[in-house]
Amino acid sequence: MRTSETPSAHRDTVLVADNLHKSYGPRAAVRGLSFSLKAGSILGFLGPNGAGKTTSIRILTTIIEPTSGRFLVDGYGSDQPQRIRSRIGVLPESLGFPGNMTGIEFVTYFGRLYGLGSAAARKKAQDMMEAVGLAKRGRSLIRSYSRGMRQRLGIARALINDPAVVFLDEPTLGLDPKGQQELQELVRWIAREANAGVVLCSHQLAEVEAVCDEVVILSAGQVVVQGAVSEVIGGKDQDFVRVQVPEAAVADAERALQGVAGVSAVKAMEGYQKGHLRVELNGMRFSVDGQHVNNNILSALIRSKVPVLGMQAGGSRLQEVFLEITQGGIQ
């Protein structure tokens, strides 16, 4: 594909996928992928195992070519992979680091690869190290960095070329809650302050719900849901518990829980493991009264001689949407 459009004309919309297909022989890995991303926005890119998410990201980062369809990155067409590579930043899930280099040397090296002179590359590397919170450790060997510090270093490397689009694959994987929160704030900074479009792939659907502006969910190689996160989860009640009983006892459990004080609805969870019930509460999940409701649920099941195999607070609203639509696990 050739395009006469200039990058500056597309700065507001920095990524456009248009009817992308990818097949391996008779197997279609991606079928008709279409979406767009604006500068300053964060897109959650999700899919169960085998959904085509990884293949899609490899296409958009020019690692592999689509069988058909096209995409634009900052106005450059997919027939210009070298141009696209200069306009993207990528943090893969498994990124190797040279332990005997310092952080500043590592980021400076990539600045030189993008065509910066020696002094300019080092200055830009210092700026990026400061932006990701590693200014004080820039002269330390990378082998001394923690997991969280290496993730930050990988983001600094991904930003060295002032990319229009940044792809982040599991940036908070393996981090403690504090580290996760700090990385989430950094992702927001990339979008809001660096004015880049961010494509975030994450197992943590609560994280996607909290950080992302929009979401694309793939299943069997095609988009099944896309839109603003608020629209996708709209109407989903977060106040519920998930109860597991033997599959043969589901109907008995549903009858036993009808009329329990504080319970508004009970239904078997379609597309989830056999024997799971969604028990919706009347807005009391995080209150003392909510604990009473949980006790009432257990008491009602015990009185009806229904074995209780498990009981837990419901997940994020986005997680419930994901499970209902894809009927599978997260890649």
CATH fold name of the largest domain, please?
Rossmann fold
Structural class: alpha/beta
User: What is the quaternary state of this protein?
Assistant: single chain
The CATH superfamily title of the largest domain:
P-loop containing nucleotide triphosphate hydrolases
Proportion in β-strands: 25-35%
The helix tally amounts to 11
Percent in helix: 25-40%
From the 3D coordinates, which CATH architecture of the largest domain would you assign?
3-Layer(aba) Sandwich
Radius of gyration (CA) equals 23 Å
How widely separated are the two ends? 31 Å
Question: Care to describe what's here?
Answer:
The protein is α/β, with parallel strands linked by helices and 331 residues long. It has two domains: 7-232, P-loop containing nucleotide triphosphate hydrolases (Rossmann fold); 240-314, 2-Layer Sandwich (Alpha-Beta Plaits). It is built from eleven helices and 14 strands. It has helices at 53-60, 81-85, 103-113, 118-131, 147-159, 177-192, 205-211, 229-232, 250-257, 288-303, 317-326, and strands spanning 13-24, 27-38, 42-46, 68-73, 76-77, 88-91, 165-169, 197-201, 214-219, 222-228, 240-244, 263-268, 276-281, 310-313. The strands form three sheets. The chain has a six-stranded mixed β-sheet. Strand 1 (13-24) and strand 2 form a beta hairpin. Helix 3 (103-113) packs across helix 4. The longest helix is centred in the middle third of the chain and has 16 residues, at 177-192. It is globular. Mean pLDDT is 87; it is low at 1-10 and 285-290.
